[in-house]
């Protein structure tokens, strides 16, 4: 792929940097703007309009007035717009991948993977849109006929994080469009460019004015508070940290909003003594190092049976030491920069705390000299279960290895967290794998595999990892409400 400065400049010039409101690109009413930086170089990529409360109210007006006609638009028409959106994402795959690498830092090959994964939500929900059936049946007593239909929930507020700038947007926008909802999308301030580029593609695909309104901002509460206080808003779907999710859930109680929360994780990756260790190492590498470890699905704690811990750790160290760290635009790079200096500092603190509590650094151990927010792939062993690295979401390329003696202990260690999003189990005994699935409190389980996200599958967590599911038929149901009409029996 051409990554010359001329190509990148041309791409940044083509990328919208305004708000998208009621079918038009507009400046923020206050005129405010904020800078978007490249985490690999710390250089400014673009200056983007920053929405405030007045823009939020204008977006709410637009979404509310478009709701009725969009909700009544035949599902086939909505599906065709989504399908054209999918096709346009394929046609612009290189541009989207480059923008993601520029603003978020992930290696280009992983950005290309995200275009495939993120684009797939548009195709999957274009196919689901026309299959959102209700039912018609007699009540058991034969006294009534039941007509059960699904209606769009209504205008939605969609808030996305910076770590998967394309997929986190399409995972919400596509089912909302398929269900017939209008929306206000607020991307993360660190990575608004991919979302703005996607918006232009969806407009080209034929979205009517007011259906999708996009409000980048570096003052998120100024946008979300007036929206959450507005009775016309009917739903919030949020992906981000548990702390911000809880805060928004509190605000959402005022108008009793439908709420979907995709929050933080602290995923265990369990390697049993009967695992294929090469498969387990490959799985751990994918589940831990992909996206620089900045994934809610990341394997945060690697739990290995004591009889294979030494061999597993040696093999993982060998594979991790071969990872190339550098700018995501460089050929062959496996690990790009972390998102910002704060992220690097907090990952370093977690490593220091683990070392103070007796962990041994097998590999890496700290940030790499700047410019750019690079952190060396780090492998820790003999990690104390009390270490912060075990209890908190790491969000960096740090793999802590802990050991267990038997299945009960592995299950207890896996469940010893307030989170419950992704988990991974490696064993060649499938009935054991399924048994562990029954016993661990996680919404997702990868059995002998390190990456399982898919547009057709329900993604989401239990406990403090959130509420609701994205993807699959479940993902569409989040944007519909059920109506039952009881009809007198003929
Ligand atoms: P974050 O909570 O800081 O921000 C997420 C979004 O919320 C951003 O758009 C941000 O601008 C916005 N926001 C922040 N404060 C707000 C406020 N007071 N009012 C309204 N909006 C506000 O999270 P992040 O750092 O962007 O993302 C990382 C987190 O996201 C991690 O915890 C990760 O696990 C989680 N995550 C979860 C999933 C999932 O599907 N469960 C997927 C990706 C990321």
Automatic annotation (TrEMBL):
SUPFAM superfamilies, per the entry: ALDH-like (SSF53720)
Keyword Transferase carried by entry: no
Gene3D superfamilies: Aldehyde Dehydrogenase, Chain A, domain 1 (3.40.605.10), Aldehyde Dehydrogenase, Chain A, domain 2 (3.40.309.10)
InterPro entries: Ald_DH/histidinol_DH (IPR016161), Ald_DH_C (IPR016163), Ald_DH_N (IPR016162), Aldehyde_DH_dom (IPR015590), Aldehyde_DH_Superfamily (IPR050740)
GO-annotated biological processes: gamma-aminobutyric acid catabolic process
Keywords of this entry: Oxidoreductase
Cited Pfam families: Aldedh
A GO molecular-function annotation: succinate-semialdehyde dehydrogenase (NAD+) activity
Annotated Aldehyde dehydrogenase domain residues: 25-484
PANTHER family membership: SUCCINATE-SEMIALDEHYDE DEHYDROGENASE, MITOCHONDRIAL
Entry's family note: Belongs to the aldehyde dehydrogenase family.
Name of this protein: Succinate semialdehyde dehydrogenase
Originating organism: Nesterenkonia aurantiaca
């Amino acid at each position: 792929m051409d990554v010359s400065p001329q190509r990148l400049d041309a791409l940044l010039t083509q990328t919208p940097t305004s708000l998208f409101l009621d079918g038009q690109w507009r400046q923020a009413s206050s005129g405010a703007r904020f800078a978007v930086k490249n985490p690999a170089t710390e250089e400014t990529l673009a200056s983007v309009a920053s929405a405030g409360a007045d823009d939020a109210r204008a977006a709410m007006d637009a979404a509310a007035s478009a709701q009725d006609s969009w909700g009544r638009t035949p599902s086939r028409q909505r599906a065709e717009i989504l399908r054209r959106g999918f096709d346009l994402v394929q046609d612009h795959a290189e541009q989207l991948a480059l923008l993601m690498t520029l603003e978020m830092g992930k290696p280009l090959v992983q950005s290309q993977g995200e275009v495939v994964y993120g684009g797939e939500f548009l195709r999957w929900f274009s196919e689901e849109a026309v299959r959102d059936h209700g039912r018609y049946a007699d009540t058991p007593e034969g006294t009534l006929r039941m007509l059960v239909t699904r209606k769009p929930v209504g205008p939605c507020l969609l808030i996305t994080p910076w770590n998967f700038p394309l997929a986190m947007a399409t995972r919400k926008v596509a089912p909302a469009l398929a269900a017939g909802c209008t929306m206000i999308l607020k991307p993360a301030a660190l990575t608004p460019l991919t979302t703005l580029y996607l918006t232009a593609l969806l407009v080209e695909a034929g979205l009517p004015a007011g259906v999708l309104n996009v409000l980048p901002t570096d003052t998120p509460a100024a946008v979300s508070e007036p929206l959450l206080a507005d009775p016309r808003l009917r739903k919030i779907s949020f992906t981000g940290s548990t702390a911000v999710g809880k805060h928004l859930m509190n605000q959402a109680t005022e108008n009793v909003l439908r709420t979907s929360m995709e929050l933080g994780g602290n995923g265990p990756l369990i390697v049993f003594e009967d695992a294929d260790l090469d498969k387990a190492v490959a799985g751990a590498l994918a589940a831990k190092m992909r996206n620089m470890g900045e994934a809610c699905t990341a394997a945060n704690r690697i739990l290995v049976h004591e009889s294979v811990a030494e061999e597993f750790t040696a093999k993982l160290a060998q594979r991790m030491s071969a990872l190339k760290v550098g700018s995501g635009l460089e050929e062959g790079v496996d690990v790009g920069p972390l998102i910002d200096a704060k992220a690097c500092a907090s990952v370093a603190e977690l490593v220091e705390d683990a070392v103070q509590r007796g962990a041994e650094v097998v590999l890496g151990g700290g940030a790499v000299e700047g410019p750019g927010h690079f952190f060396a792939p780090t492998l820790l062993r003999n990690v104390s279960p009390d270490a912060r690295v075990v209890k908190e979401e790491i969000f960096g390329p740090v793999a802590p290895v802990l050991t267990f003696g038997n299945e009960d202990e592995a299950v207890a260690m896996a469940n010893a967290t307030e989170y419950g999003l992704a988990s991974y189990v490696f064993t060649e005994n499938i009935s054991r794998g399924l048994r562990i699935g029954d016993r661990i409190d996680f919404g997702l389980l990868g059995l002998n595999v390190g990456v399982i996200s898919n547009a057709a599958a329900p993604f989401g967590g239990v406990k403090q990892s959130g509420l609701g599911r994205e993807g699959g038929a479940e993902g569409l149901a989040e944007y519909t409400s059920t109506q039952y009409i009881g009809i007198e029996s003929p």
